[in-house]
Amino acid sequence: MGTAVLILAAGAGIRAGGERPKQYQPVGGQTVLRLTVEAFLSHPGISHVQVVIGEGHEGLYAETIQGLGLLPPVQGGLTRQVSALRGLEALVPLSPSKVLIHDAARPFVSHAIIAQVIAALDRHEGVIPALPVTDTLKRAPGGVITSTVSRESLWGAQTPQGFRFPEILAAHRRAQAEGLGHLTDDAAVAEHAGLSVGIVPGEAANRKLTTMDDIAEADRQFLRASIDRLPDVRVGQGFDVHAFEPGNHVVLCGVKVPHNMRLKGHSDADVAMHALTDAILGALSEGDIGQHFPPSDMQWKGAESAIFLRHASGLVSGRGGMIAHTDITIVCEEPRIGPHVSAMRASLSDILAMPTQRVAVKATTSERLGFTGRREGIAAFATATVRLPL
């Protein structure tokens, strides 16, 4: 029994732009979806959280919810309505008394809204948070105003939309059986089934992130809040070198760069990522990469350096902090780094769950001086700015 939450994250997120769906875009060092999930997991009135994901999103999802111990995800459909029904069917074995259905792209839902929706379900078969419409509304077919629409009694719907579980499940099944697939939210499904749906006050902060501008503003909002609670600013630096050996590519920032040599090392020898890992560890005063991942330990032979970087990032999160910015300079005569910088920034952004705007990658030569100038290997310098609570 209890109250389950169904988080709908199956959308392609193409309107937002970017290289990944909006629910997997980073905001404040976490993905939008993880922030949303954690908002419900941290509420004492929630018994289970079920996420509905899109086809082909399994890898992104697994990376996002790592360590949260959620129910296995459900694959969604082509419409929100189909995804919601599939999620509800997955909850049947749990027999919750109530269910909250929430958009993954609303990561700032508050405990107050969650509590109000749950409590109001003792009085109504369905409940939604909503805000009264305050703008003047115009009807303008073809871009020409034909009338003004009265905003009296009009509300802007938000989520989570709460329902008594058996009733909303039956309502969704009925809509599917009748071939009714155009309903845009679960309240509309409930209304079609004749259920009574009440309203509780919504919050302006509980907005839906739709575009990349929305996500960028959310990240700025999160950063402003973090600045207040994370006043301890640390800057760490890292440096690493690796020699060349025969091969056909080098790995830099997780990107395979074609070359007639490779970098020699116990792991994948990603010299740039090693330097950045050391920079983060240095900001935390947590030693260096060799102490955490000794080259004498055979389990790290050939390992992807992303493992090391995620570990360092996790240490920051574990102390309640955030990585505010990273900067890497790669020093080599060859291969050419410039054509791969965008891919490298995107790779680091994914690993650290940071916007690419906070990830810098640069390259330079040593003017043919020293071991890099003699094309004997590659060096990398890195700095990491970390914010921690006092």
Name the features.
60s Ribosomal Protein L30, Chain: A, alpha/beta, Spore Coat Polysaccharide Biosynthesis Protein SpsA, Chain A, 2 domains, 19 strands, single chain, 12 helices, 390 residues, 5-stranded mixed sheet, 8-stranded mixed sheet
Protein model, in words:
The protein has 390 residues and is α/β, with parallel strands linked by helices. The protein has two domains: 3-224, Spore Coat Polysaccharide Biosynthesis Protein SpsA, Chain A (Alpha-Beta Complex); 231-388, 60s Ribosomal Protein L30, Chain: A. Helices cover 32% and strands 27% of the residues. It contains twelve helices and 19 strands. Helix 3 (80-91) crosses helix 5, helix 5 crosses helix 6 and helix 8 runs parallel beside helix 10. 42% of the residues are buried. The mean pLDDT is 93.
Give a count of the beta strands, DSSP E runs of length 2 or more. Answer: 19
> At the fourth CATH level, what is the homologous superfamily of the largest domain?
Spore Coat Polysaccharide Biosynthesis Protein SpsA, Chain A
The overall pLDDT average reads 93
Low-confidence stretches: none
Please report which band the strand proportion falls in: under 5%, 5-15%, 15-25%, 25-35%, 35-45% or over 45%: 25-35%
Q: Would you state the CATH class of the largest domain?
A: Alpha Beta
Q: How many independent structural domains?
A: 2
Q: Roughly how many Å is the radius of gyration? A: 25 Å
Largest sheet: 8 strands, mixed
